[in-house]
Amino acid sequence: MRTEPVSEVLGVELVDFDLARPGNPDERAELRRLFCEHHLILVRGDGVTDEDQTRFVGSFGPVHRVATGATETYISNRPDRMMGTGTARLLWHSDGTYGARPGIATSLWAQEVSSDSSPTSRHPWPGV
Fold first, then answer.
1. Cβ distance 50 to 43 under 8 Å?
2. pLDDT of residue 101
3. What DSSP character marks residue 118?
4. Tens-binned pLDDT, residue by residue, of the chain (128 aa)
5. Alpha helices in 6-65 (DSSP H)
6. CA 6 to CA 4: how far, in whole Å?
7. Is 58 in contact with 49 (CB distance < 8 Å)?
8. Whole-angstrom Cα distance, residue 12 to residue 32?
9. What is the pTM of this model?
10. DSSP string, 54-67
11. What Å distances lie between residue 48 and 9, 15, 106, CA to CA?
């Protein structure tokens, strides 16, 4: 598994990593080790399915399910998508962070990215 640092302080990119291919136990253990060491894993590529994403995230521990049983929730600035935001700024948050059993990570999956997409905000209030 080939990796490259994302920055000097945080993150590692998996180079030429195929999310469509199920990993073996040794590869999943290496993914967990990389996450514990670097705290952020970046994977680039097209053609990822919901199942690929869920399987990859499952390498790190149990995948959260919403009340409907789905493992994915979507935020989009497209009006034809669930939880559409239009052109509004997307406020970054992490549901469940303060729950009784918070997850160890949040997975962000950019399915479509365009240069005119609504930006995200780390701090929604001035001075925070």
1. no
2. 76
3. P
4. 899 999 999 999 999 999 899 999 999 999 999 999 999 999 988 888 888 888 998 898 888 877 788 776 656 655 555 555 555 555 555 666 777 777 777 777 776 666 665 555 444 444 44
5. 25-38, 50-57
6. 6
7. no
8. 12
9. 0.71
10. HHHHGGGSPPP--T
11. 28, 15, 17
At 115 the three-state DSSP class reads: coil
The residues with which 107 forms a beta bridge, in sequence order, are none
**Contact, 36 vs 11, CB < 8 A?**
no
| 3-class secondary structure, 3 | strand
Query: Encoding tokens for residue 53?
Result: 């994403």
Q: What is the pLDDT of residue 40?
A: 92
User: 106 exposed, middle or buried (CB, 10 Å; 0-12, 13-18, 19+)?
Assistant: middle
C-alpha to C-alpha distance for 33 and 37, rounded to whole angstroms: 6
Write down the pLDDT at residue 123.
45
CA nearest neighbour of 44 among 104, 92, 106, 110? 110
